[in-house]
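Design job #97: recover the sequence.
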């Protein structure tokens, strides 16, 4: 390593929703930003959630009114800024009188409706289930309220793209292996995990947004004691053939006071989750246990007429949530709130570490974190992300956009058009380009995934392997055989070996 090191205002370690959110906010305030992620964007917790933009109805029982109010207020801002990957959803709660009395549920829903202003989402109401509903016939009464759905991994990728458009440099598969503090800068050693090459950059501030690794990064990289520890809680989900009748979701109560969601998923499936289990070990290696699978199936089978067995599970995933360790006995009661620790001894260059958090409040977390950083950057601009439309989100209605897309590309199959709209929004035109017929999309890999889309994901969205494409950028892995995955992987190895590094494609130059 020779020559003058690249110099930044802020280096962010961690490419999950919190790290990309901070990188986007800081870049939009005029700061020079580099984000490094040791794997793929959203490769851990941020792609393994229940995929909801919600206030957290059950958090009211734990008296987390501030967190719920903030999350409720954020729902509509996020829905407006990314209408392609987020949309409103109605949730149905079948009433089980022995678990929670009706008055308690009504009181909770009243608070849920009124803790924050609503403009897009309708309020709650009592409902009566009919024989057409998929629930067992003895379940006749319930409640309905509004929240939102989000493609969590695409939220992270699009946030990173927005940061890049604002001048940030995004580097995936790049591990921060050493960070040493000087009087006016950090010297950060970065390792390219694909090539084994390392380099040193300088930064005026360092952000530890490593999610489940936030505490361990202090020992492994910063050579200092973590100011606080996190509690790692594993949440597991299963995907099964479609249980939901229409576009409604279900929220199911259980005897252990937990709730489980059954959510419409990718046209033909239902997503069921989540569990709450304390976890130790490498967060990257978390998998669902047989006990967790049985737990989720038992709850679903208690409510739904169609009975499921383990053989009905099409796919499963587990994520490790880095929750603040507030010494609660049960994992389900651990707070989903967040906090920061800023370390700047003797006025030296700061280290900001993020502990906890939840998907819905990522923008507010990023805003608050960047506010703290900007105490060291008086030249930085002020708040701006409340109305920050993510790439592809500059439209009002998915149906109207799909209609316009199909008019422009009349040969486009309906299911593919629908998926492109809810993944890329108006960037679907960038992806399809001058294609004049289906054959122009190139090789058909599987499902409705074609070469042109995969090439777009490599060039514009940092995709490097089959998992990046099939499970985080798209959900086409649900339709893939082992042979098809192998063929896609082989194609990607050839393609990425020829492609320039994505981080340099924007033309952004470090100072």
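Job complete. Output follows.
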């Amino acid at each position: 390593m020779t020559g003058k090191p690249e110099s930044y205002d802020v280096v962010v370690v961690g490419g999950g929703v919190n790290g990309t959110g901070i990188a986007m906010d800081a870049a939009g305030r005029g700061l020079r930003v580099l984000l490094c992620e040791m794997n793929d964007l959203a490769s851990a917790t941020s792609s393994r959630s229940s995929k909801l933009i919600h206030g957290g109805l059950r958090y009211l029982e734990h008296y987390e009114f501030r967190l719920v109010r903030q999350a409720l207020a954020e729902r509509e801002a996020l829905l407006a800024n990314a209408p392609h990957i987020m949309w409103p959803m109605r949730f149905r709660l079948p009433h089980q009188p022995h678990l929670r009395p009706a008055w308690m549920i009504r009181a909770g829903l009243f608070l849920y409706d009124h803790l924050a202003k609503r403009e897009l989402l309708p309020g709650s109401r009592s409902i009566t289930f009919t024989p057409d509903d998929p629930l067992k016939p003895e379940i006749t009464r319930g409640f309905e309220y509004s929240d939102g759905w989000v493609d969590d991994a695409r939220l992270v990728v699009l946030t990173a793209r927005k940061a890049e458009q604002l001048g940030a440099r995004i580097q995936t598969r790049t591990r921060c292996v050493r960070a040493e503090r000087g009087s006016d800068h950090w010297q950060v050693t970065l390792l390219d995990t694909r090539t084994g090459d390392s380099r040193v950059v300088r930064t005026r501030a360092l952000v530890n947004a490593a999610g489940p690794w936030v505490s361990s990064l202090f020992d492994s990289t910063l050579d200092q004691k973590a100011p606080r520890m996190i509690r790692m809680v594993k949440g597991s989900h299963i995907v099964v053939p479609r249980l939901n009748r229409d576009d409604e979701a279900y929220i199911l109560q259980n005897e252990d006071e937990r709730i489980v969601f059954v959510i419409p998923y990718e046209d033909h499936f239902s997503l069921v989750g989540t569990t709450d289990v304390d976890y130790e070990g490498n967060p990257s290696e978390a998998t669902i246990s047989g006990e967790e699978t049985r737990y989720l199936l038992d709850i679903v089978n208690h409510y739904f007429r169609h009975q499921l067995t383990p053989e009905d599970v099409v796919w499963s995933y587990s994520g490790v949530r880095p929750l603040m360790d507030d010494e609660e006995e049960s994992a389900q009661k651990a707070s989903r709130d967040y906090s920061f620790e800023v370390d700047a001894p003797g006025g030296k260059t700061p280290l900001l570490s993020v502990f906890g958090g939840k998907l819905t409040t990522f923008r507010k977390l990023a805003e608050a974190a960047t506010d703290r950083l900007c105490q060291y950057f008086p030249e930085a601009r002020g708040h701006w992300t409340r109305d920050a439309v993510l790439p592809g989100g500059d439209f009002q209605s998915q149906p109207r956009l799909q209609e316009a897309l199909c008019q422009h590309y009349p040969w486009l199959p309906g299911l593919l058009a629908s998926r492109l709209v809810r993944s890329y929004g108006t960037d679907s035109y960038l992806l399809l380009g001058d294609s004049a017929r289906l054959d122009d999309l190139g090789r058909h890999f599987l499902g409705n995934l074609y070469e042109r889309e995969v090439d777009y994901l490599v060039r514009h969205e940092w995709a490097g392997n089959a998992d990046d494409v099939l499970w985080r950028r798209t959900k086409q892995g649900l339709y893939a055989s082992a042979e098809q995955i192998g063929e896609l992987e082989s194609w990607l190895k050839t393609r990425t070996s020829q492609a320039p590094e994505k981080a340099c494609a924007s033309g952004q130059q470090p100072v």
